[in-house]
Amino acid sequence: MSSVINIKDKVPVLTWDERYKRMIDAAYAIAMTAEEEIHKRCSKDIGLEIRREMHRMLAKTVGKKIIEKFNLKPTLEDALKLCVLYSAEVWGYGAREYIDAKMESPNRGVYANLICRGWELAKREGKLEVMKEMDCAQGCMVEYETLVHELNPNIKVKMVKARPWGDDRCEWVLEM
């Protein structure tokens, strides 16, 4: 005669940190797969607009929550803090080595993603050429501009370096 074994009690449990990391990994994989499929199946112009809208909505939704949670003010310094929170805390497992942010003057700041988890995933998957071809920076340009404009629409945001352009980082200049 066989006895019933309750399997759910024998399955290991992830910590909250491990769950968070797995969900972020899943989000990256889903987003990148969606962008790649859009790139393959749509005309260049339509695909780019769809990809930009995906990035816009992501930054708008997450940005509002970060701004409220940390009571960020519409200053250039807080705009840089918002970029750090968004990249390091939301997408980068809290690792500050993923980013750099500096106030160069009262009216100018520079923010950089030193490690792009999306770019790293593409490298592991052998898809860097696809990322370069679709110029993944186009989505990030919209994403960070939208993010900063949730805080203050008067801050100018310009991407000046990007991995698909041959740079070793993605970098933005923020100016009042």
- Placed side by side, the strands forming the largest sheet appear as 1-2-4-3
Q: Structural class, judged by helices and strands?
A: alpha+beta
**Residue share in helix:** 55-70%
Rg, please? 19 Å
- The percent range for strand residues is 5-15%
Mean pLDDT: 94
Question: Which regions are unreliable across 5 or more consecutive residues at pLDDT < 50?
Answer: none
Largest sheet: 4 strands, antiparallel
Order of helices and strands: HHHEEHHHEE
Number of strands: 4
> Per the principal axes of the C-alpha atoms, what is the gross shape?
globular
DSSP helical segment count:
6
- Termini distance? 77 Å
Keywords:
6 helices, 176 residues, four-stranded antiparallel sheet, 57% helix, single chain, alpha+beta, globular
Short characterization:
With 176 residues, the protein is an alpha+beta fold.
Describe the structure.
The chain is of the alpha+beta class and 176 residues long. It is 57% helix and 14% strand. The protein is built from 6 helices and 4 strands. It has a 4-stranded antiparallel β-sheet with strand order 1-2-4-3, with helices on one face. The chain is globular and about 75 Å long.
